[in-house]
Amino acid sequence: MKLKHITSSALALALSALTASACLVQVRVACPNDNTAAGIKVCIAGSLTGCAYTDSLGIVSLQVPAVGNYTVCVDPATLPPGATLKPNCKKINVLTEDTTYVDLELGGDFCSTPPPPGPCWLTGGGQVYKGRGVGNFSYGGVVYPGCSPKAAEGGNWNVVDHIAGLHFQGQQIIVDSCSGVPTRSPRVTVNVIDFHGTGIIGGIGGNPDATVPVTFVARCIDNHDGGAGADQIFLSVTDAGNNVLLQIGDSAAAPATVSTGNLQIHQSSCK
Whole-prediction pTM value? Predict the structure, then answer.
């Protein structure tokens, strides 16, 4: 469950084939217990956007011009009182023109008190139904709580169906409920998140440029530190005629187990 660095090479390769734009790097700066703060300055040398400041969830997004190796640095002068971060810089490998997820771990007295429990939210990335090669599905993204101040309409959730050649993008997301049991890494009071929303799916009829609007429902379950072989996901994507275009798992009650990667549920106070 503890997210140290979420990247999926299979998702990277698939998304790079389906998109054509600058590469997005999403960085989260937080304690092991999920405590974080807004206003932490994060920079990537050579990025198109230079530097940016974390939001209330500790997240910041920056664009780099192409795939390759970069260095993410945090300005220590902007850390909250009592927080430490050593080293202040981390080398990353951007493999995709879509989103690469990076986690930087804070320490110090700032991390001694966990944040108050609030609405849950989700980060994740990996593969499902993986054998020796690329899995049938690659997944990745962030789902924010409904009260989040983010302007990203609830986050973003991407799934690539490698068998059918489809790319689903959840673009407007609503968290329906947070339930389940407490976990310890980080310490949260729930381990199940249910959400739904709208988005698009591409690759219809074998045409990567052909997209249709869709609706979806999803459930993710954070069962174990590390995720692979334990965490579970259900996703059903339907078109306007209620035809299922993409599905992972049999139902919300019978989700699929992730083969690689991680699904991590967080909690934060809702102001």
Answer: 0.70
